[in-house]
Specification:
The chain is mostly helical. Among the domains are: 1-81; 472-543, Winged helix-like DNA-binding domain superfamily/Winged helix DNA-binding domain (Arc Repressor Mutant, subunit A). Helices cover 83% and strands 0% of the residues. The chain has 26 helices and no strands. It has helices at residues 4-20, 24-40, 44-60, 64-67, 70-81, 84-100, 104-120, 124-140, 144-161, 164-180, 184-200, 204-217, 224-240, 243-259, 263-280, 283-300, 303-315, 323-339, 343-433, 438-452, 457-471, 475-482, 488-498, 503-510, 514-528, 536-541. Helix 2 packs antiparallel against helix 3 (44-60), helix 13 runs antiparallel to helix 14 and helix 23 packs across helix 25. The longest helix is centred in the C-terminal third of the chain and has 91 residues, at 343-433.
Length: 543
């Protein structure tokens, strides 16, 4: 029969596996079940652990309003009580979410914090994941030189780990950066590297994105090559099961036909965009389908039908956040009213369009300036964090030295106590065997009197406790307050673990075998009720 912790942990591990496989629905299902069990068993530590899986699952579904409130509630618990790999997963997830929601400062700050931690522990896979979060954030800030520098690290790690998924992702982002810095041909080369890897591994979603981007880089809208690019992108997008990618590829096919005056074929593809959007209730695709159909009917001179689709497209503007969609919609309204000879209405839309374009230009300037400030601020914060960590390391080193001094003192007391016991034994035997000479007997009795008051085990333990309390005030009080069921020997072992001493040294100090100490540690873990993957020393350090 499974223990309650095994039951919870099973669902957490299943959630982790689903996250790695990209199945957010299954990941959320298992993480939620783990939360329910943790609540049922009244285990707050496991509850926090399970909620990390819930937050990551919501992020994968882009439900940031549900995921973001979870992080501050579990942050300290995860950092203090769980393995570094879980802490890094939290940093990576939070960084990516900040990036997706526009908080680039925190996206970069926590990505770099995680990168340094992963490097310190030699965790290459986590390092790669966090580096990708940093590269993506730099890309969004249009800091392409920084983005490419980080991506070079990712490419090296992905090749080392033979991780094709990350290799394709890094090549894709590198290609985007190259195109943006006017290295178009080299960018296309990297896109093709990513495409080959994605197709070889049946990663149709990434392949669909790459093919769509490649088709946009081909300026010859009337060429057969452009048509083949669009056709191939659609074939791959259909395999990806992604509404957004399929709708985008269908739109590109329709655009090619419309550009080449084949309106009937273009209309067929645009109508299919609406069919796809309706099945998944996907806002962007709804807007795209109606906008493209409005444009098509305007070109055909069917103004009433164009107006109908454009009105529908406009209703979806309330649910979109991309300025270019609003701009394109306003521009099409202007062209429609102008074509219908509605001068006043056309003028109103022209004024709206001009005002929006001014705001977009101003916003771009502000974002560029803001990006410079964000990167500078992140660099400054990283320096401050590094300085603080150096102080902590120095303090830790001092504490470790103090710990060694306490242990050395305890060992010396033990050795002196043992030596004095031997003297006491010899003196006692001497008293019993030499009773004939009064002077010698009197001296022996004095020795026996002093030896009777020798330091006891408890006295050396008290000395040890005093030293420990000087370094870590209130530790023993907090330990007993939280775990009053601990035996005296278990309390001593916890104190020695607080000094981060290895099992062998603890065994030497307590004059016990290593196996006995290991058994005590096992029983202490049971009384602490901590998960198997939580380090007992880490738990004690955070009491």
């Amino acid at each position: 029969m499974k223990s309650k912790h095994e039951d919870i942990n099973e669902h957490i591990e299943l959630s982790k596996n689903a996250i790695r496989a990209g199945n957010s629905t299954l990941a959320l299902e298992h993480a939620t079940q783990a939360c329910r069990l943790a609540i049922e068993y009244n285990d707050t530590l496991w509850y926090d652990y399970a909620r990390l899986g819930v937050a990551i699952s919501y992020n994968m579904q882009q439900k940031y309003s549900l995921s973001m409130p979870i992080y501050p509630e579990i942050w300290e618990s995860i950092e203090k009580n769980f393995p570094v790999s879980d802490v890094l997963q939290m940093y990576a997830s939070y960084s990516a979410t900040c990036g997706d929601t526009g908080d680039m400062q925190n996206a970069l700050l926590w990505a770099h914090k995680g990168i340094e931690l992963a490097q310190a522990h030699g965790l290459d896979r986590q390092l790669m994941n966090l580096s990708f979060s940093a590269a993506t954030a730099y890309d969004r800030l249009h800091y392409y030189s920084r983005s490419m520098s980080v991506l070079e690290t990712i490419l090296s790690l992905a090749k080392k780990l033979n991780d094709n998924r990350f290799l394709a992702a890094a090549y894709t982002l590198y290609a985007v950066a190259l195109v943006e810095v006017n290295e178009k041909e080299l960018g296309i080369e990297y896109y093709n590297k990513a495409l080959n890897i994605a197709l070889d591994n049946n990663d149709y979603r990434r392949a669909a994105v790459i093919l769509h981007n490649l088709s946009l880089l081909n300026p010859d809208n009337d060429s057969a090559e452009k048509f083949e690019d669009c056709k191939r992108a659609l074939e791959v997008a259909r395999k990806s099961d992604s509404v957004r990618y399929t709708a985008g590829a269908l739109t590109s096919m329709g655009d090619w036909y419309l550009y080449n005056n084949q309106t009937a074929e273009a209309e067929k593809y645009y109508m299919e965009v609406l069919d796809v959007a309706k099945k998944a209730d996907e806002t962007y695709s709804h807007w795209m389908g109606h906008y493209r159909l409005a444009k098509l009917y305007l070109n055909k001179g069917e103004y009433d039908t164009a107006r109908k689709h454009l009105q529908t497209a406009t209703t979806f503007l309330q649910q979109v956040v991309l300025d270019f969609q609003i701009r394109d919609t306003y521009e099409l309204w202007y062209n429609l009213e102008k074509s219908c000879a509605n001068s006043l209405e056309a003028l109103e839309w022209h004024e709206k369009l001009s005002d929006l374009e001014r705001k977009m230009a101003q916003k771009k300037q502000e974002e560029t300036a803001k990006a410079v400030l964000i990167v500078a601020r992140v660099d400054e914060l990283r320096k401050q964090l590094a300085q603080e960590e150096q102080k902590v390391q120095k303090l830790t080193k001092t504490q470790e030295q103090q710990a060694r001094e306490v242990v050395t003192l305890s060992l010396e007391l033990e050795e002196k106590k043992t030596a004095l016991k031997k003297i006491k034994k010899i003196a006692t035997e001497s008293i019993k065997s030499n009773t004939s000479k009064p002077a010698e007997q009197k001296s022996a009795e004095k020795i026996e009197h002093y030896l009777r008051n020798l330091t006891t085990d408890e006295h050396s333990w008290d000395t040890f406790k005093e030293g420990l309390e000087r370094m870590h005030p209130e530790f023993i009080h907090r330990l007993l307050q939280k775990h009053p069921e601990l035996s005296p020997m278990q309390i001593r072992i916890c104190c020695l673990l607080r000094l981060q001493l290895p099992t062998k040294e603890i065994a030497d100090i307590l004059k016990l075998s290593q196996k006995t100490i290991e058994n005590h540690r096992m029983h202490i873990r049971v009384k602490f009720k901590i998960p198997r993957n939580v380090n007992i020393v880490s738990y004690i350090l955070n009491l």
